Amino acid sequence: xxxxxxLTYFDVRAxxxxxxxxxxxxxxxxxxxxxxxEQWPAMKNTTPYGKLPIMEVDGEVIHQSPAMARYLGxxxxxxxxxxxxxxxxxxxxxxxxxxxxxxxxxxREKDQSIKEKKREPLFNETIPFYLDRLDKxxxxxxxxxxxxxxxxxxxxxxxCLETIGTTLKICFLDKYPNLKALTExxxxxxxxxxxxxxxxxxIF
Length: 204
Ligand SMILES: N[C@@H](CCC(=O)N[C@@H](CS)C(=O)NCC(=O)O)C(=O)O
What we know:
By secondary structure, the protein is an alpha+beta fold. It contains 8 helices and 4 strands. It has a 4-stranded mixed beta sheet with strand order 2-1-3-4, with helices on one face. Helix 1 runs parallel beside helix 3, helix 1 packs across helix 8 and helix 4 packs parallel to helix 6. Its EC number is 2.5.1.18.
């Protein structure tokens, strides 16, 4: 019997969307469980590290969005062709995560004066620093992050870049043609197009 998959996250795209993309790409049926923010405090301590997303695979709980994406990537032959290429996927996702942590820290910052201090260096230095490099990596790897091959790193980064753009209200892709082309390539895959059409419409 095929394993069962239940993905639990908030009713947003953000860190669950790469997982949803990969499940959709693989034609894997899954329960897309969305928790209301008001329900979360009561649920937090029932999760392994007090965070979402989590995914139940045949009832076993797994967590950490990059680990989940990597797991699905291996299952779907989207982790490169050998250990080295698998490492290349991990490295670019980990580098991207450094950026993501900074942008999500900014987005969540409640103290407006701290937020304003962080704004200029984040928008004018940090984000361009990372996006220049990510764009160059795609250019040098024939349109993907790893050696011209479709990998889970493409899915992970394309989805999370979209969230960075939406949450920080910035349209940066026009400045980064290789990231833009990769985003269009992923979003135009037939399974992903179908998922985008049917997924719930959410704020980010
Ligand atoms: N490293 C984790 C981070 C998970 C994470 O930060 N989740 C946030 C939502 S994006 C969360 O659960 N926030 C609620 C909380 O911390 O109480 C991953 O990649 O899955």
